[in-house]
Write a structure and sequence with these properties.
By secondary structure, the protein is mainly beta. It has one domain (19-127). Helices cover 9% and strands 32% of the residues. The protein has helices spanning 34-39, 88-93, and strands at residues 22-24, 29-32, 45-51, 56-62, 70-71, 73-74, 83-86, 102-104, 108-109, 115-118, 122-124. It has a six-stranded antiparallel beta sheet. A five-stranded antiparallel beta sheet has the order 5-3-4-10-9, with no helix packed on it.
């Protein structure tokens, strides 16, 4: 019998605590898990960036004294290490309107320390 193998290319599941996990909800709240927060250098505040041509959000560390700095808030879960950014005004301004909570499937921090969130690479958070 000749077998027709198909290689599974996705690899093993990576535990949530070991990968960068970022979501955005309908109200414009962005959640960063502990790994994302640490990869950015554990900033107190961030600035929000948007590339409309590529539908990509950028989050970069910033001093608290900066006028447009957003303070990262602790997530409610004790010990989670996650942070949230209340970005509803940013989302409204840039016409970002998720219909449900979305997880960024390819979130990464670039060499300049900017968290890159591509709105073209998302999945419903409940399935991610």
């Amino acid at each position: 019998m000749e077998r027709q193998w198909k290689e599974f290319e996705h690899g093993p599941v990576v535990k949530d605590g070991e990968r960068i996990h970022v979501t955005i909800n309908r109200r414009g709240t962005v959640y960063l898990n502990r790994r994302a927060f640490e990869a950015m250098g554990e900033p107190e505040c961030v600035i929000l960036l948007y590339d409309s041509r590529h539908s990509t959000i950028g989050i970069s560390r910033a001093p608290a004294s900066r006028r447009n700095a957003f303070r990262l808030k602790h997530k409610d879960l004790q010990g989670s290490g996650g942070r949230i950014v209340y970005a509803s005004n940013f989302c409204k301004f840039n016409h970002i309107r998720p219909q449900e909570t979305l997880a960024f499937t390819a979130a990464e921090v670039d060499k300049e320390g900017v968290l890159i969130l591509d709105l073209n690479e998302v999945a419903p958070a409940r399935s991610f």
